[in-house]
Specification:
Layout (H helix, E strand, L loop, with lengths): L5 E3 L5 H12 L3 H6 L6 H16 L5 E4 L4 E6 L1 H4 L7 H13 L4 H14 L6 E8 L8 H16 L3 E5 L5 H6 L3 E7 L5 E7 L7
Parallel strand pairs: 4-5
Antiparallel strand pairs: 1-2, 2-3, 3-4, 5-7, 6-7
Helix pairs in contact: 1-3, 3-5, 5-6
Bound molecules: coenzyme A.
Coenzyme A binds next to helix 1, strand 4, helix 7 and helix 8.
Length: about 200
C-alpha cells in the first residue's frame, strides 16, 4: 500500500509544480529533441508546464501529492473535442516559439501535430503529462497518482490514453493496464509509444 497522499492540485501549487515538472522533464528524450537547446531551456520548461496546469485547472483533473513532489494532468473527453477557431495557431504560436526557439520550431510543431494525428477519436481521458521530482522518482509517486484517477475512470467506464516519451516508462504504464497500440517516429528523432487502457470492471 502506497504512503503517497494524493490530492487535487490548487492554483497556488502551480509555481512549485512548474519547477518540479521542469526538473523531471529536463532529460526527457522528446522534449530534449524539440525544445530550445540553449540556456533558456529550464525557463521554457517551467513556462510550458505553468501554462499547461493553468489551462487544465478548469477541468478539475489535475492531481498532486501532499508534499508537492509530483503531479499528473489529465484532459477529459470534452476538452479534447473543444473546437479550435481559425485564429488558434496565431494565439498558440508565441508560447510555442518560446519553448522551441526559432531553430526548433519545426520540430515542436511536428511533435504536437504527430501526437494530435494519432490521438484516438473515441471519447477517453488523456494523460497529458505526469512528472515526479528527480529526488523522489522510483518511490511510487507516479503509481499513486495514476491509480487515483484510474479508480474513477474504472467506476465510470472511461478509457484512458497517453503517449509515453521514454521507453523506461512503458513498463510503469503497462503495470497499470495500458497497452501499446502504435508508435510515433519523429523524423531523425526519438519515438513515442501510444498507449491505450480500457476501463476495468470493478471486482466488488
Ligand atoms: C516516469 C515517472 C513519472 C515515473 O514516476 P515514479 O514515481 O518514478 O514511478 P513509480 O515509482 O510509481 O514507478 C517506478 C517505475 O517508473 C518507471 N521509471 C521511469 N523513469 C524512472 C526513474 N527515473 N526512476 C525510477 N523509475 C522510473 C520504471 O518503469 C519504474 O519501474 P521499475 O522500478 O520496475 O523500473 C518519473 O520517473 C518522471 O517524472 N520521469 C521524468 C518525466 C517523465 O518521463 N514523465 C512521463 C512522460 S511519458
Amino acid at each position: 500500500m502506497s504512503s503517497v497522499e494524493v490530492r487535487e492540485l490548487r492554483r497556488e501549487d502551480i509555481p512549485r509544480l512548474s519547477e518540479v515538472l521542469a526538473q523531471a522533464f529536463n532529460t526527457d528524450p522528446v522534449l530534449d529533441w524539440a525544445m530550445r537547446p540553449d540556456g533558456g531551456r529550464m525557463g521554457a520548461l517551467r513556462d510550458m508546464f505553468r501554462r499547461g496546469m493553468l489551462g487544465a485547472l478548469r477541468y478539475g483533473e489535475e492531481t498532486t501529492t501532499k508534499d508537492l513532489n509530483a503531479c499528473a494532468i489529465w484532459a477529459p473527453p470534452e476538452a479534447l473535442n473543444e473546437p479550435h477557431g481559425p485564429l488558434d495557431p496565431i494565439f498558440r504560436l508565441p508560447p510555442i516559439f518560446g519553448y522551441s526557439g526559432l531553430g526548433r520550431l519545426r520540430r515542436m510543431m511536428t511533435f504536437f501535430d504527430a501526437c494530435e494525428a494519432k490521438r484516438p477519436r473515441v471519447p477517453h481521458q488523456y494523460l497529458d503529462f505526469i512528472g515526479v521530482h528527480p529526488s523522489k522518482q522510483g518511490q511510487g509517486y507516479a503509481s499513486a497518482l495514476i491509480c487515483h484517477t484510474l479508480r474513477s475512470l474504472d467506476a465510470e467506464g472511461t478509457p484512458a490514453y497517453l503517449e509515453s516519451s521514454n521507453p523506461r516508462n512503458n513498463p510503469l504504464y503497462q503495470r497499470h493496464g495500458f497497452e501499446i497500440t502504435d508508435e510515433i517516429h519523429l523524423p531523425d528523432g526519438p519515438t513515442l509509444w501510444c498507449m491505450w487502457r480500457d476501463p476495468k470492471p470493478r471486482s466488488t
